[in-house]
Amino acid sequence: MSSLSLPPLPDNLTVLGCGAAVVDLLAAVAAYPKPDDKIRTTSLKVQGGGNAANALTCAARLGLKPRLISKVADDAQGRSILEELQADGVDTSFFVVSKEGNSPFTYIIVDNQTKTRTCIHTPGYPPMRPEELSESSLSSALDGTRLFYSDVRLHETALVVAEEAARKNIPILVDAEKKREGLDDLLNFSDYVVCSANFPQAWTEAPSITSALVSMLLRLPKLKFVIVTLGEDGCIMLERSLNESPETEERDIDSLVESLKQRKHNDIAIPTCVSSSATKVRANGIGTVNARLFVGTAEKIPPSEVIDTTGAGDAFIGAVLYAICTNMPPEKMLPFAAQVAAAGCRALGARTGLPHRTDPRLASFLH
């Protein structure tokens, strides 16, 4: 499928990210080592990583124009982080480069048997301080930006950017992977949240994932939608509905999600999505919100093709950034993001398998 047959992209495709840019040292092993073992790798890769850097690399390959605010040291690893991002079309001119110290890096053990990845991270030093991003730099970083995205690393700097983005009415997406310092402040500014499977209940203390999503929409009045990614079980999205029709019947969120799961296309390998109509969604003991519920499936990847799940969540977010910028409806966005994430799982490293916009596997979603 040539790119000529794809529809033209909208004008404003600039997204700004703030967060982690690191070097990943990936070691694939036949089975996870026991304490005091000596084992050999089945393959090894050194590649750029970090949530924000991965998600923006994904977004760049899909056709967006990403800018990243982050910090590295002036060492070999720092230089390779910048060069790799630049080669993928990510604007690194807003990076802070410290003369001394070390750039951040992560050891990743990829277990071929259980298809899991274990990360051991060493932060960069010295850490980034908000005052290292000058006012003029912040202003030009946000100039013409369609969307701001934070992975909640460098949270003090991210908060300064989020406050200014909100002042300029630039929407904000937050990657809520787990409870960490500065997250609550960023969530208060967020228009969109994408979170990991464990986060909604950990943050809200609600009895189920779906009731936790209701709680998040009630606690964060600015929030337009929240998506929880569930790995091979796909994803669930709750989107706030603005039409307050008084005759809409109330539906219990847990029974609503079960009824949608009955309609899921479990026999189809490619990702799909089913949705409710806009309704009053109730979570017992939590409250009621006008919303639409979406249940998305993941691609059913043959086990032999799953190489490494590192960065699958970042790829999903990169695709969601693209979907928001191109006004893709949710029922198309969720399968598209799942397809992009699945492509990334078929190669070692977070970025190796990330598809380009012209990838034939994406053609059906882009028309």
UniProtKB/TrEMBL annotation:
InterPro entries in the record: Carboh/pur_kinase_PfkB_CS (IPR002173), Ketohexokinase-related (IPR052562), PfkB_dom (IPR011611), Ribo/fructo_kinase (IPR002139), Ribokinase-like (IPR029056)
GO MF annotation: an example: kinase activity
Keywords: Kinase, Transferase
Carbohydrate kinase PfkB domain ranges (all copies): 19-239, 298-356
Domain of life: Eukaryota
Pfam families: PfkB (PF00294)
Family: Belongs to the carbohydrate kinase PfkB family.
Protein name, per record: Carbohydrate kinase PfkB domain-containing protein
Organism: Vitis rotundifolia
